[in-house]
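Closing statement on the NAI sub-project.
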Amino acid sequence: MSQYDVIVIGSGPGGYVAAIRCAQLGLKTACVEGRETLGGTCLNVGCIPSKALLHATHQLHEAEHNFAKMGLKGKSPSVDWPQMLSYKDEVIGQNTKGIEFLFKKNKVDWLKGWGSIPEAGKVKVGDDTYETKNIIIASGSEVSTLPGVEIDEKTVVSSTGALELGKIPKKLVVIGAGVIGLELGSVYARLGAEVQVIEFLDHITPGMDAEVSKTFQRILKKQGLNFTLGAAVQKVDVSRGKAKVTFTLRKNDSEHVIDADTVLVATGRRPFTDGLGLDALGVAMSERGQIKTDAQWRTNVPGIYAIGDCIDGPMLAHKAEDEGMAAAEVIAGKHGHVNYGVIPGVIYTHPEVANVGATEETLKQEGRAYKVGKFSFMGNGRAKANFAADGFVKILADKETDTILGAHIIGPMAGDLIHEICVAMEFGASAEDLALTCHAHPTYSEAVREAALACNSGAIHA
Ligand code: NAI
């Protein structure tokens, strides 16, 4: 029987990062994964493949809408859908093989198969049982469906099926205006589908700064996405490969039915812990099916830790990665730490949307005195040249101390721009600190500095 210091269950961004860090810290480590390839949902059927399709379709959008304006004339490219899907698969392959390489390089054993925990200190994979001093559960999440909606991954799809549709639908109905619905809705709108997004709330992107959310909806509408807000989907009926979506409008309870070639269910994800044997072990779970942990990712069973989507907090790959590294450090006797106040969120549409820290709404709820520094990309030369001037940077700072409390960006490369504000927040910086930092010209980053200036003395190009 092999003896390990740590066995990690699951090889998504949480699990593989935890395994590599454990090995780097000198612990004998294995990682259990039942999929054919490493990398979990993110690399195989999530973040990475969706970004490949977003990239390809954005190029198409640029060719169709902006090339002629720049003097690039000629026929717009036509879509070879099977080739676009193979490009996406190629990208997945490069990434998953990269993790396999990193496992070999760091001497992490890949135990192939689905793991379970017969007792603390043991992990079973197929017919083999391995002894281990510590276990990190990083089993991730799965799609959460609605009552009355059955996902067949053909006509009614989750994000997984939406990444490999047999053909581009004429009419796509998206249930849920969250991250998945809007990213994949954008992909198919750019490919020519008529996209109808049905959302339960009266606004898109729950939890997002309201001003950003409104601007985002306006921009997406211009790009051809249609929204029905305040609508609860009741059921989806499928017949001969076509769907009928029934929903009620919450304001008057009226019932409506719309047709679709494809329905994307994007109403959230839930923790995935099936088959691990957690009940028998007595691992404490929350009412929402999350594994309960303390501040150092320990469950109530000694020697068993949990990280990522299967515990509390935002279901984000980078949050899982940070927890993976920190849990490894705790196991190695060091001081693993995650600053949950500075975890950015990004939506990879065009323009991108990114946020970190408090929103105006949360600050108001807390009764906290704050100031707002806002700068439109219309005042940014680089954004104008690149047809990317729709959007803004908004920085929220404490009214008295000027400490940055949060930031919200809708605009070009927002997902990258947000990080200088994350670093500033990590160091407890003030808006003035950002404003006093020289920013190269002409860059999109200048808009961040201008928003910081707008918190105090005022932006220059506003
Ligand atoms: P989500 O939680 O972001 O959005 C789900 C939406 O569905 C909500 O707006 C909700 O109000 C709506 N909804 C729920 N029930 C409904 C009903 N009956 N009728 C109409 N609307 C309904 O969930 P999503 O987009 O499925 O994403 C799942 C997870 O994956 C999220 O935690 C997200 O953060 C993560 N993710 C992150 C990405 C990123 O960071 N770029 C990309 C993709 C996913």
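Residues 146, 175-181, 183, 198-201, 206, 232-233, 266-269, 315-316, 346-348 surround NAI (CB under 6 Å). With this model delivered, the sub-project is considered complete and its resources will be redirected to Aim 3.
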